[in-house]
Amino acid sequence: MDRSIAPKSSAPRYALKAPERQVAFRREHIATERTNLLIKPHRNDQSDRAYKISDEEGSTVFTATGRKYNDRSCRELRDSSGLPLFDIHTKPLLSPLSWVVTLPGGKISEGTVAKATPSFPWYSDNLVFSFRNRASEDRKSVENKQLTLTVKKHSKALAFFDIVDRDRRIAELRESIVHNERLALRRTNRGRGHRPALDLIVSPGVDISLVTVIAVIVSDWFFGSS
User: Fold this and answer.
1) Separation CA 128–CA 153 (nearest Å)
2) CB 217 within 8 A of CB 127
3) 193: how many CB neighbours lie within 10 A of its CB?
4) b or e along 99-132 (b: 16 or more beta carbons within 10 Å of the residue's beta carbon)?
5) Is the peptide bond before 118 cis (omega within 30 degrees of 0)?
6) CA–CA distance from 107 to each of 19, 132, 183 (Å)?
7) Rounded (10°) CA dihedral 182, 52, 46, 86
8) 150 contacts 127 by C-beta, under 8 angstroms
9) Rounded to two decimals, what is the model's pTM?
10) How far apart are the first and last CA of the chain?
11) Coiled coil: which residue ranges (predicted)?
């Protein structure tokens, strides 16, 4: 799909600040302070490092495999030691396109950690990301355990994606000006296989592995070839 024809969000951006309660897949990856990460894609579907996520010092924090690295046609998100954390499955046969996150080796039909789908209408540049908030396991209310974030696209040139929780921006993804050899400034470059490096900004109280999963999905969806 040519994503350049999709409408861009004209709504004002929320302030970047910590969520009212912690937001996480895994508590051990919750940021204690504002955290900057970089995600760099390497175009090789059979690579064990199709994506590399590093901190400000350049040290590897996470990696994600290519879709054809294993025999299950999914990406594996791993920590710096190589330990699998999550599998990211794409469901292209559904309308609209959607993604399912499972534990390592999990099936889409069982053990779902999170789901992501484009907002209505289907050609929107926004995503709805729903998951069970593991940081709220001690809460009695089911409503507090189930959480939905919105990933909102901004800007007509450089891509900005805000990860929004209720009325606040808790994380941000954006095309990196510093770490890209060339920028996809022209609309004709988008959706044609050029996947730029993305800067990730994560507020304290937010799981960096969760934001990384969203970043991988956004990179595949918005910048990947259709």
Assistant:
1) 12
2) yes
3) 11
4) bbbbeeebebeeebbbbbbbbeeeebbbbbbebe
5) no
6) 31, 17, 36
7) -130
8) yes
9) 0.86
10) 5
11) none
Q: How many H-runs (helices) and E-runs (strands) does the chain carry?
A: 2, 12
- For residue 189 the two structure tokens come to 């470059």
What's the Cα-to-Cα distance from 189 to each of 152, 157, 185, rounded to whole Å?
A: 20, 11, 7
Place of tokens 């690295």: 69
Give per-residue pLDDT as tens, 162-175. 999 999 999 999 99
Q: Is the pLDDT of residue 93 over 70?
A: no
CATH number attached to the domain at 3-223? 2.40.160.200
Q: Looking at the DSSP assignment, which residues form a beta bridge with residue 160?
A: 154, 174
What is the distance of C-alpha 168 from the center of its chain?
A: 17
pLDDT digits (tens, 9 = 90+) for 32-84: 999 999 999 987 777 888 999 999 999 999 999 987 777 778 999 999 999 99
- Partners of 138 in the β-ladder: none
Q: Is the peptide bond before 121 cis (omega within 30 degrees of 0)?
A: yes
133-162 pLDDT, tens digit each: 998 766 665 556 889 999 999 876 778 899
> Any idea which residue has 């289907």 for tokens?
122
Task: Tally the residues of the chain.
Answer: 226
- How far is it, in rounded angstroms, from Cα 95 to Cα 173? 25
**Taking Cα atoms as reference points, which of 4, 1, 49 lies closest to residue 188?**
4
